[in-house]
Specification:
Keywords: Membrane, Transmembrane, Transmembrane helix. By secondary structure, this protein is α+β, with helices and mostly antiparallel strands. 44% of the residues lie in helices and 16% in strands. The chain has one domain (5-144): 2-Layer Sandwich (Muramoyl-pentapeptide Carboxypeptidase, domain 2), CATH 3.30.1380.
Length: 145
């Protein structure tokens, strides 16, 4: 890893990353690096986790409010949710994401592995597009209604 252990810890703590968030992001990254995980598996698994969390903590009366609830409940980072024709646009400020397998977990392999599309889809009860797009300083996920 490019950082010294102390530098990495300080960098993650400055972003508000808690040990459990670092554990989850690092676990996802490690599974990918040893070859037992791909984006399809991450999506399906995190969608199930999202549904489970919704069963435990309850969904809100709209998908947009449910997205806000799960992200705030899990303290995932700075985000915004916008309603657009045909669905929702969820944007997470990339530098603030506390579950990113790359920025937090140290993943250095190519390819996508973001756990948010499945998690958000499962918790809000609406399908997400599988392609996470970068738009400036945000990672953008589109969800249908």
């Amino acid at each position: 890893m490019a950082h010294q252990d102390g530098d990495l810890r300080a960098a993650l703590e400055s972003k508000g990353v808690k040990p459990m968030q670092a554990f989850v992001a690092s676990l996802i990254a490690a599974f990918r690096e040893v070859g037992v995980l791909n984006f399809g598996v991450v999506y399906m698994a995190t969608e199930k986790v999202g549904k489970r969390l919704a069963a435990i903590y309850g969904r809100e009366d709209s998908p947009a409010k449910s997205l806000t609830k799960v992200v705030e409940m899990l303290e995932l980072g700075e985000f915004k949710v916008e309603e657009q024709e045909g669905g929702l646009v969820f944007a997470m400020r990339s530098e603030s994401c506390r579950l990113c397998p790359r920025r937090v977990g140290g993943l250095e392999l190519p390819g996508k592995l973001c756990p948010l599309p499945g998690l958000l889809s499962g918790f809000a009860g609406v399908p997400a597009e599988l392609d996470v797009k970068r738009d400036g300083e945000y990672c953008v996920i589109r969800l249908k209604r």
